[in-house]
Specification:
Blueprint (H helix, E strand, L loop, with lengths): L23 H7 L3 E8 L2 E7 L1 E2 L4 E2 L2 E2 L3 H12 L1 H6 L2 E6 L2 E6 L13 H9 L1 H9 L5 E12 L7 E6 L2 H14 L1 E11 L5 E13 L3
Antiparallel strand pairs: 1-2, 3-4, 4-5, 6-7, 7-9, 8-11, 9-10, 10-11
C-alpha cells in the first residue's frame, strides 16, 4: 500500500513545479480545504491540503470536509489502481471506516467479483481509519502483512468495514509518539448487498512518524 502520508490536515510541504489536479482539488476546495500540490517526496506520492488544525476537524474557516471526502479525494493519487476499481470510502470517522466497490467491471472468468478486488476494498480500510483517527501531520500508516479469507462468492457490490477500539487507539498513539512507530492489527468484514459475509481479512499495519 502506498503511504497516505500526503493526505494531511495541515500544510506540511512546499513544492515547486508540480501541477494542480483537475479532480481532487475542486472536491477539497468545495468542502473547505485549500488544495496545495501533487508531487513526490521521500518515495511517497503527496497530496497536500491546508486550512485545518489537526485531525479533529476544525479549521480557521469552519468545519473540514467529512473524512470520507478527504479519503476519496486523495485515493485517485495515492492508490490509482484502487480508484480505477471504483473503491470508495462510504463512511470514515475516528476508529471506524467503511469502503465499497461495485461488481460492475470487477468480475472474473466465472461471473463473481475478482479476488484481488475483495482484497483491495478491505486493505484500504487501514489508510482510511488512520486519516480520521491519528494526527496525519505527524504520522502515516503502512501495511506490513494481510491475510484474506474468502467465505462466499460475491455477485453484487460489496461493503468492507473495520474498527479500532478506543483503548487500542490510545495505545497506538502513545507508542508511536514515544518510539516513532506502532504496530496494530485491523480485522475487516466484507459483505454483499444482502449482508452475506463474502470475505474477512486480518491485517498487520503500522503507524509511523514522518521521517522514520
Amino acid at each position: 500500500m502506498r503511504s497516505w502520508r500526503g493526505i494531511t490536515t495541515q500544510h506540511r510541504w512546499s513544492w515547486r513545479g508540480t501541477r494542480e489536479t483537475s479532480s481532487a482539488a475542486p472536491t477539497l476546495r468545495s468542502a473547505g480545504l485549500r488544495f496545495g500540490a501533487v508531487g513526490r517526496g521521500g518515495g511517497h506520492e503527496v497530496l497536500v491540503a491546508s486550512g485545518a488544525k489537526g485531525w479533529c476537524g476544525m479549521s480557521d474557516e469552519g468545519q473540514t470536509p467529512p473524512f470520507a471526502e478527504i479519503v476519496n479525494a486523495g485515493l485517485e493519487f495515492t492508490i490509482p489502481i484502487a480508484h480505477g476499481m471504483g473503491v470508495r470510502a462510504a463512511e470514515v470517522r475516528p476508529g471506524f471506516a467503511a469502503t465499497m466497490v461495485p461488481i460492475e467491471g470487477n468480475g472474473n472468468h466465472f461471473g463473481v467479483m475478482y479476488a484481488g478486488v475483495l482484497f483491495t476494498v478491505a486493505e484500504i480500510l487501514g489508510g482510511a481509519i488512520a486519516v480520521a483517527t491519528f494526527d496525519n501531520s505527524e504520522f502515516y500508516p503502512l501495511v506490513k502483512d494481510l491475510h484474506v479469507y474468502f467465505r462466499k462468492p460475491a455477485k453484487t457490490d460489496v461493503r468492507a468495514e473495520a474498527s479500532l477500539p478506543a483503548d487500542e487507539i490510545a495505545r497506538i498513539a502513545e507508542e508511536a509518539a514515544a518510539k516513532g512507530k506502532s504496530d496494530f492489527t485491523l480485522r475487516a468484514v466484507v459483505t454483499d448487498a444482502d449482508g452475506v459475509v463474502v470475505a474477512e481479512t486480518e491485517g498487520l499495519y503500522q503507524l509511523r512518524a514522518h521521517g522514520k
